[in-house]
Amino acid sequence: GRICRWIFLFQEFDFTVVVKPGKSNSGLDQLSRIQSGEEPQTIEETMPDAQLYRLQRCTIRIRGHCCLSKD
Fold first, then answer.
1. What is the DSSP string of 16-68?
2. What does the alpha-carbon distance between residue 26 and residue 52 come to, in Å, rounded to a whole number?
């Protein structure tokens, strides 16, 4: 479901994923480490499926894939 939608979305881009372990990543952004006073929420609470992209049947093919659209 959700992973498939993201795969379809990212197939349109040419990118390389580079993983850097924390010890070798010396340029960490301090803003990403700031703790908030709120309880963490699950991805289902913050971004339910209804708000994610959904696949639609389309008559026009883009690189052989279905179109992506937002509700």
1. ------TTT-TT--GGGGPPPSSPP--HHHHS-GGGS-EE---SS-BTTB--E
2. 33
What is the Cβ-side half-sphere exposure of residue 70, based on CA atoms within 13 angstroms? 3
pTM beyond 0.90: the answer is: no
Q: How confident is the model at residue 61 (pLDDT cuts 50, 70, 90)?
A: low
Q: Which of 48, 54, 43, 45 lies closest to 4 in space, CA to CA?
A: 54
Q: What is the pLDDT of residue 71?
A: 46
DSSP 15: -
Q: Give domain limits for the chain.
A: 1-10+47-71
Higher pLDDT residue, 52 or 3?
Answer: 3
